[in-house]
Amino acid sequence: MVHPNVLRMSGIDPEKYQGFAFGMGIDRLAMLKFGIPDLRTMFDSDTRWLSHYGFDPLDGPSTAKRKA
Q: What DSSP character marks residue 20?
């Protein structure tokens, strides 16, 4: 449920309306795509897990600027 103050700050009367918020995060979508049974394993620092699901442990986002 959405807190009444959130509704109030949005200009909605919480005495008249209630809110329900939900969503599916990117981690849940990855679980479905790759068949990952436990969400917690996605946040462990286990390079074997990365290799098992086809990711390269050393392949991270680059901070180097690309040349056009």
A: -
Domain contains 30: yes
Q: What tens digit of pLDDT does each residue of 48-64 get? A: 888 888 877 677 666 66
Say what the pTM is: 0.47
CA 1 to chain centre: 20
Whole-angstrom distance, CA of residue 37 vs CA of residue 22: 21
Going 60 to 61 to 63 to 66, the CA torsion angle's sign is positive
| Other CB atoms within 10 A of residue 40 CB | 7
User: What is the Cα 18 distance to its own chain's centre?
Assistant: 25
**Cα–Cα–Cα angle for 25, 58, 67, nearest 5°?**
90
Q: Tokens for 34?
A: 């790759």
Total tally of structural domains belonging to the chain: 1
